[in-house]
Amino acid sequence: MCPPFVGKMVCHVLAVETPADGVVLVDTGLGSADVATPRQRLGREFVAITRPTLDAAETALAQLPRLGFSARDVRHIVVTHLDLDHAGGLGDFPEAAVHVSDAEHDAALDPPTRMERQRYRAVHFAHGPRWQIHRAGGEAWNGFAGVRALEGLPPEILRVPLVGHTRGHHGIAVRRAGDEGWMLHAGDAYFHHAELEPEPRCPLPLRAFQRVVAVDDAARVANQRRLRALAADATAGVRIFCAHDPSELERCQTPR
User: Fold this and answer.
1) pLDDT given for residue 1 in this prediction
2) Is residue 157 within a helix (H) or strand (E), and if so which, with residue range?
């Protein structure tokens, strides 16, 4: 018999310090209440399958003070999508505006399918987030269409449509200070760093999981192809990472 697949995954939350708009979070990961009561907030099935690290010190709320910020400094949260492992910490920042695509907002608050009723957790939105809902449309950017800045945020923060994993999934691009190029948080557009290599590869369980949970697998695959092309373009100056690959998180934490 083959041994069961056991892998390490992370929830990569990006904190962006802006000159005039405080701290902008890209996703939140699991929240402090999720850690305290995981089965009630995340669901028994999710906890049993993923076996999350239930450590309050790992939450964005706890890690911000280590960077010199408080929860009140977080004025905006931009979500790639509203799956429970990306939106669980929204309640830790109740004063922040939550930026989300209209398709993702509608799917999360009124899930149309059984799978979507499982992936979104109403308790994560029970505090009444200050939604900032963004409609489709925009300009071309590095091979992607419909890209635009988020209203109310600096123009150096862009939403990049990457639908497929969910109905309103987006990547978030951030222009780094000092003309150091772009960072693109690709959310769950892919799960393993080798998926962006010229000859892509991915562990079979992760590859199967992505296909099963995608609401539009053809769109997901097409967007991975575009991300792969962008990653191979050294002239674009875009550093791409996804939400769950621990090696990518480690590289982002290492100064270049």
Assistant:
1) 44
2) strand 157-161
The CATH number fitting domain 14-253, selected from 3.40.50.2300, 3.60.15.10, 3.40.1260.10, 3.40.50.150: 3.60.15.10
What does DSSP say about strands 130-134 and 97-101: parallel, antiparallel, or unpaired? parallel
Domain boundaries defined on the chain: 14-253
Cα atoms found within 13 Å of the Cα of residue 113, Cβ hemisphere only: 8
Banded model confidence at residue 256, pLDDT cuts 50, 70, 90: low
- Residue 91 has phi, psi (to 5 degrees) of -65, -15
- Outline where 22-156 has alpha helix (H): 32-36, 38-42, 44-50, 60-63, 84-87, 102-109, 114-119
pLDDT digits (tens, 9 = 90+) for 34-60: 999 999 999 999 999 899 999 999 999
Q: Are strands 74-78 and 130-134 parallel, antiparallel or unpaired?
A: unpaired
Other CB atoms closer than 10 Å to residue 199's CB: what's the count?
6
* CA separation for the pair 75, 95 (Å, rounded): 7
Measure the CA–CA gap between 105 and 109, rounded to whole angstroms: 6
3-class secondary-structure state, position 28:
coil
**What is the per-residue DSSP string for 30-53?**
S-HHHHHSHHHHH-HHHHHHH---
Residues 5-15: what's their mean pLDDT?
85
Average pLDDT over residues 106-120: 96
- Residues 178-221 pLDDT 10s: 778 999 999 999 999 999 999 999 999 999 999 999 999 999 99
Rounded CA-CA distance 194/200 in Å is 6
Output the pLDDT for position 5.
52
DSSP state of 16: E
